[in-house]
Write a structure and sequence with these properties.
The protein has 195 residues and is mainly alpha-helical. It has two domains: 1-30; 32-190, Ferritin, core subunit, four-helix bundle (Ferritin, Up-down Bundle), CATH 1.20.1260.10. 66% of the residues lie in helices and 7% in strands. A two-stranded antiparallel sheet has the order 1-2. Helix 1 runs antiparallel to helix 3 (114-141). The longest helix has 30 residues, at 35-64. It binds hydroxy diiron-OXO moiety. The site of hydroxy diiron-OXO moiety has 10 residues, from helix 1, helix 2, helix 3 and helix 4.
Length: 195
Amino acid sequence: MFLQNTFVYNLFFDLNTQKMSTTTSILRQKTSLQESVVDILNKQMAVEAHSSALYLSISAWCYAQGLRGTGEFFRKQADEEREHMMKIFHYITHAGALAASPEVTNVERNFTDLRSVLVMALDQEIMITENFNKMTEHCQKARDYQTAKFLQWYLDEQFEEEQQARRCIEIFDQMNPKDALYDIDREIHDLKKGE
Ligand code: OFO
């Protein structure tokens, strides 16, 4: 879609016939990335942008409830999601392909209570992990091992982020929220201390 302007013939060594072959290639003169790979990376940029906006919205709600520690936790999380998006942006552009600046719509703004917000954040992270699993599988099937290697960083990051999101819910459930909302807020804040 993004790179279909030039239609060129490339020479390549055919492993089956053991000789140089001519094949049509739309993309290879500009980028080593296949179109389907550029497409899934761009789609994931949009998911990261949406995550960033969602966490900023959660942060704003937390601050408005006086939950400043959790507000700060989600403000940092929003920044991290934008960094994740930009890391993909740099990967696409450095590979010579075209990154698509994402449009962010439908950002949730109506939250009811802290626990449901924490569960929403965990669900979001689980969904993102699943995306990266599928993307890695796609790249392996497409024999794009470089991009599969790039995606490994995200799988490691998701492992950490899911643990953190689960810990937030554990903290909430282990303390009686009626008596200890202040302490819950502080504990969640401290999960990102030093980040
Ligand atoms: Fe935790 O989502 Fe970005 O990658």
